[in-house]
């Protein structure tokens, strides 16, 4: 498994930093976001180091979608959500802070007041 020694997500993937895993499969895992914007806000993270979605091999697409679906189902049930957003920031200008590909899963409820777009 590729690892970038100073990457926090690589350290979590390798078990060097402990984190509560909501979901885990061969190439992806999900953990709660350290700074959630709503209850249940979580991250789907690749176990191998890819800086952004453009670096992620297309061959991992089905497993990524499965991780998004399974994690979202878990969060909907746990937080009584009625919907969810999937957000992926690529490059600094788009808001990417950690340079390791990850997807935000944001559980939603009607009239929750959260405005992501417009």
List keywords for this structure.
118 residues; single chain; alpha+beta; HIT family, subunit A
In short:
With 118 residues, the chain is α+β, with helices and mostly antiparallel strands. It is built from two helices and five strands, in the order H-E-E-E-H-E-E.
Could you characterize the architecture of this molecule?
This protein has 118 residues and is an alpha+beta fold. The chain has one domain (8-108): HIT-like (HIT family, subunit A). Helix content is 21%, strand content 20%. It has helices spanning 8-13, 61-79; strands at residues 23-24, 28-32, 42-46, 83-87, 102-108. It has a five-stranded antiparallel β-sheet with strand order 1-2-3-5-4, with helices on one face. The mean pLDDT is 95.
